[in-house]
Known about the structure:
The chain is mainly α and 332 residues long. Helix content is 71%, strand content 6%.
Amino acid sequence: GGGAGGGDVARSFLKKNKDELHAKLPALMAASRWPFVRDLFLARAADSRRGEVARQFAASMKELTETLAATDQHFIRCIKPNDRRTPFDFDEALVRSQLQSCGVLAAACVAQAGFPYRRTFLSMLDDFRDLLTLEEQRLAWGGSAAERKAMVRKLLTQAGFADEDYQLGRTMVFGSAGLEAQFAERARELRERREADERARQREAEAMSAEQKARLAEMEREREEAHAAMIAAAEAATVDAEKRRLEAEAEARAKDAELEATRAAMQQELEERRAAADAAEAQRAADEAALEEARREEEARLLEAAQRQRAAEEQARGPPPEGGGGEVHYLA
């Protein structure tokens, strides 16, 4: 009986005394001049995986902090829908109680009081893309986050918002309550102002065309006067009248040639403008097609990245616990 008790004590002693030696002690003993002592610690010194508890904990914490620094933190609040563990069955009183006790409603109130408007740069630029030039639209879809951030700041500045009305993060814009409606209203005013400027430029172009028409009418009037003078000179029978007739005829021919040359130049200018307009329209169509293709590629890339992240999160999270409501899970 005593032998059995002694064995239990020995096993208990081993179970309670498993603290690791200092990492340098096995190496020191393995370098002993006595072969017996050296042989006892050679295997222990070669086993580099075993270390003291504090060192293992420090290494684990370092690895955890490096993982946290390289990822975005998301906290998911799990709400238990009912006590019966049945799908698609929500107990309103139970859910409301959990939302209140977990602070979800209070967090929503805090967000509403701070910067409730939260949109990514890409989605905001897509909503108001008609305020951007084609070059800016290409940058919005194919440029860097810094370029998108600069374009968002430019839009908000043009709309007249102060710096305290919004904050720009690395990929999102945060705004005060009502910022979206205010920005939509100011964006509409900005569109109207740009349309008014465009109409003014069109009126200026039309005015230039009217000026050209007035110039043609003046030249035609001068030509008619020259022809009338030629006829009047032809009716006279004197040598002086014949001379004036010849001079008037030469002047009339010169006016005819000048008028025809001016008309030919204007016609050529009109054809060049039409050709330039057609080329610009073709380029605009090509740019829009390229922009649409870039947008589809960006959406596909974002969707694929979201799917990969969701799969990684589900793999890291593992199977959900049974009936575990009201718990906070950490996802990296």
